Automatic annotation (TrEMBL):
The keyword Zinc does not apply. It is found in: Cell membrane. PANTHER family: ABC TRANSPORTER ATP-BINDING PROTEIN, DOXORUBICIN RESISTANCE ATP-BINDING PROTEIN DRRA. It comes from Actinokineospora diospyrosa. It is a peripheral membrane protein. Its main location: membrane. The keyword Transport applies. Residues 317-336 are annotated as: Disordered. Residues 10-240 form the ABC transporter domain. Belongs to the ABC transporter superfamily. Drug exporter-1 (DrugE1) (TC 3.A.1.105) family. Keywords: Antibiotic resistance, ATP-binding, Cell membrane, Membrane, Nucleotide-binding, Translocase, Transport. This is ABC-2 type transport system ATP-binding protein.
Amino acid sequence: MPPPASSIAVRAEALVKTFGSTRALDGVDLEIPSGTVLGLLGPNGAGKTTTVRILTTLLKPDSGSAFVAGHDVTKDPDAVRRSIGLSGQYAAVDEHLTGYENLYMVGRLYGMSRTDATSRARELIGRFRLTDAGDRPAKTYSGGMRRRLDLAGALVAEPAVVVLDEPTTGLDPRGRLDTWEVIGELVADGTTVLLTTQYLEEADQLANTILVIDHGKVIAGGTADQLKAQVGGERLEIVVGDAAELAVTARVLGEVGSDEPGTDQNQRRVHVKVDTGPKALVEALRRLDQENVAVLDVALHRPTLDDVFLALTGHVAEEEPAAEEDPKGRKKAKTR
């Protein structure tokens, strides 16, 4: 049975998809309450985009079920398509049309009247801060402007669910921040968002809940704080003035910490996981003072999503995967 559309905007259960000998999805479950952001976090090759393609009716699962806005993705794909907006990894805009013309065309393709398509296009041009460029060809736009135009295109039909597949891939820091702002505005307006990303800080910034996916399986889920709590403790870092003092600093941090300390010779930095936070910091500084160690810098960090991902998977989130196969069995260096 489909989930209640009023409370759950997207639900998938036990999704499986294989391409030749590659099992891209291996029993993926996910659920997105209406008006929230779910961050699907994982490296290239994890299965993020395969999940997106199933939820947007571009692929059929081998097994499992999925509902979007109360509609079954395999039994009622047309209704699903009418309920979603999709922005992929690369801005899908016509470079030879103006920004306004791009949005007007999308509106007409959705069946809007000329008057309604015109009004909606002008509204979104203003909302996405493209007014000054709205009548210029899209080929004159910067990467960040094209991304905003692509996001605007995904909203023309005012969909209940917006799917953003690695929306900041290839953007510079300014463009990434602009995109984050736009996504924040969507959520403030009550839109449900599925966000796939391999950028840990992006998930931390935007998502209400996060699923960590690796090799086609969901390996952890929760809020950013809940995931960080799985790692436990904090990290104490000490920078000393003389590399000759690294050994004694490592010994002291090993005594106050909860695991083996790590040392960076080039940065003259020693770090260790601690369970007692500020108490461990104070005790470490007291002991280093007794040892006459000159401390240049000290910091106490909460676990980051980088720490979480490394602890869960044994590798970093932006690690390149081994070659996989496309649906015709040919080897590919990158799949998602």
